[in-house]
Amino acid sequence: MLPSPGSASNLNMNLYATKKTAAEGMLDIALFLANITHMKTVIEQGAGYRYYIAVLTLISFSLALQIVAGVLIIIIARRDVSEESNQKRLDGLNNTTTIIIFLIFVTNIFISVFGMERTGLFARMHF
User: Which helix (H) or strand (E) holds 15?
Assistant: First the structure.
């Protein structure tokens, strides 16, 4: 009897893990580019910007974490998850990457909070 098309035995875990890792990498690149653009904007505003040092520090920290996460994602993608000898190490690397991505997420929340500018419509409103 052949397994049904959606059954677990037809699932190639290595292919799934590779695609998942590639998707994480693409999202990491998109966030990396957004942070570089944000950093450029803050630098162009100059040191007179109220949270200049805080935002530059947070963006730098986020970029450093993103580089580490990117390297870990590349390492994970290059290993075969279906080999039993790799599974424990890959699980640890995956957990580490998840923690780093969470730290990037929290850091970027602070970047967004401190990076809000009073321009356009909001500049005319008095809060």
Answer: helix 13-45
